[in-house]
Every structure is written in structure tokens, then in C-alpha cells.
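thought: user wants a sequence for this fold. calling inverse folding tool.
action: design(structure=
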């Protein structure tokens, strides 16, 4: 099931790329692929938000370091207007036990029973960004992102499985800053972020880009994803760290 879902996303992503290239004409289309390792330094959960037992997938359980993949298609028109689609699946696994009974999503897990947890936070985003400056030294842009969050937290022991799913729309502010500090090399700072009384979300990348030609490039850097929500239905806050390697292809 997991592989089928992953292949389905890749097929959709490839189809969107073909459509973008066909429609682009003389405008620039960029394919941006990332992979690497992601790990948690915070992942606190309480479900329901008012009556569940708060526990940590980092401190109470042991979280795995996970490989990740994400891809973005960007279409730039007139050097100023950037439209992009991002597909960013994410799954973190954890295991262990807790010393006290754990009330989670209507199920109570006994103390010291072996537990398996799965934290899934798949993200699909459409972004429009306006480029205020674009020259040989600097690129500066600001825009808006519409994010669809497809998330779930699952907890199971040898006898019982309980899963809380959540799908929703989140508006975010998008930004990009690039500085060419040497021939063919750029320092990139980009991301999506927004805070509100209902919660917050930040997904930011600091990376070095290398473009040996106008057709392709590489990047390496660090990405931070942080945020969550605190309400009657769910309390969940996570901080994830990504070590990123990436490839660009320009059409």
C-alpha cells in the first residue's frame, strides 16, 4: 500500500511536469528534486487535545532517522512570475514503551507495553511568487503558498491499532533570497511560513547551489520543518531536521 501510494504520487508529479513543459513555450521550467535524511528533535502528541495523554515520539519513544524525497516543478514567466507545485511526502517511525497507561484517540494502551508509532505528514503545495530583483548577484522574491496537509498519527501495540487522520488547507507566506557569492555558486534561503492562534508552520531551507551550466545544478544544505496545532481535537508539535542533497534540471 505504501509503495503503491508513493508510485502514484511520482506518476502524478511526472504528469504535471509533462503538462508544464508542453505549456511553457519559451518560458523556463525547472525540476527541483531533493533527497537525504530527516530526523526529529521534537515530536509531542496529545489526542484528543484536552483529554489524551501527552507523550513524545522522541523522548518517550525512540524515533528513526528516515530517508526522504520531495519534488517541485516551477514555471517562471517573464522573469518575474514564478508558479510552482511541490510534492513532499514524509513518514517518521518510532517504537518503545511508556511507564504509565497512555490514552490516545479513544484507546488506552497499558503501561510498558511495546508500542509502534507512525507520524505521517504529507504536504502538497501550490505557490505563486513575485520576483522583485533578479540579476547576476541577487534574486529576491515574495509570494503566497496554498498547502494541502494530509497527516496522520498511528499508535499500535500487539493487540490494538489506533490512528488519527487529518486533512486540511493551510495558507503560507513564501519567500526566496539568493546571493551569488562566487562564479556558479549561490547561497539560497527560501521557505514557507506562517503563525496564527490555531498553530504555526515553518519550512525553511539554507543551502549552497552550484550551477555548472544553465541546464542543470546541484544543492546541499539544511532544511528545518517545525509547527503544529493546539486545540480540543489534537495537540501536536514537531521539529524535523533535514540534511538535503538536491538536483535541478532546467528546460
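)
observation: tool returned 251 residues.
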Amino acid at each position: 500500500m505504501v509503495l503503491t501510494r508513493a508510485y502514484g504520487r511520482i506518476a502524478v508529479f511526472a504528469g504535471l511536469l509533462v503538462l508544464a513543459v508542453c505549456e511553457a513555450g519559451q518560458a523556463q521550467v525547472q525540476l527541483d528534486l531533493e533527497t537525504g535524511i530527516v530526523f526529529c528533535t521534537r515530536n509531542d502528541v496529545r489526542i484528543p487535545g484536552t483529554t489524551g495523554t501527552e507523550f513524545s515520539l522522541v523522548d518517550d519513544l525512540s524515533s528513526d532517522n528516515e530517508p526522504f524525497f520531495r519534488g517541485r516543478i516551477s514555471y517562471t514567466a517573464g522573469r518575474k512570475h514564478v508558479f510552482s507545485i511541490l510534492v513532499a511526502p514524509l513518514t517518521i517511525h518510532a517504537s518503545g514503551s511508556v511507564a504509565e497507561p497512555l490514552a490516545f484517540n479513544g484507546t488506552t494502551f497499558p503501561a510498558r507495553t511495546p508500542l509502534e508509532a507512525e507520524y505521517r505528514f504529507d504536504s502538497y503545495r501550490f505557490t505563486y511568487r513575485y520576483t522583485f530583483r533578479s540579476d547576476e548577484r541577487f534574486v529576491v522574491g515574495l509570494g503566497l503558498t496554498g498547502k494541502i496537509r494530509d497527516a496522520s498519527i498511528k499508535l499500535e501495540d500487539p493487540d490494538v491499532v489506533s490512528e488519527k487522520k487529518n486533512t486540511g488547507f493551510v495558507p503560507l507566506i513564501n519567500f526566496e533570497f539568493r546571493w551569488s557569492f562566487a562564479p556558479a555558486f549561490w547561497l539560497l534561503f527560501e521557505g514557507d511560513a506562517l503563525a496564527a492562534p490555531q498553530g504555526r508552520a515553518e519550512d525553511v531551507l539554507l543551502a549552497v547551489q552550484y550551477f555548472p551550466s544553465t541546464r542543470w545544478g546541484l544543492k546541499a544544505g539544511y532544511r528545518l520543518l517545525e509547527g503544529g496545532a493546539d486545540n480540543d481535537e489534537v495537540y501536536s508539535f514537531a521539529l524535523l531536521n533535514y540534511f538535503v542533497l538536491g538536483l535541478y534540471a532546467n528546460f
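thought: summarizing for user.
answer: Here is the designed sequence. The chain has one domain: 2-250.
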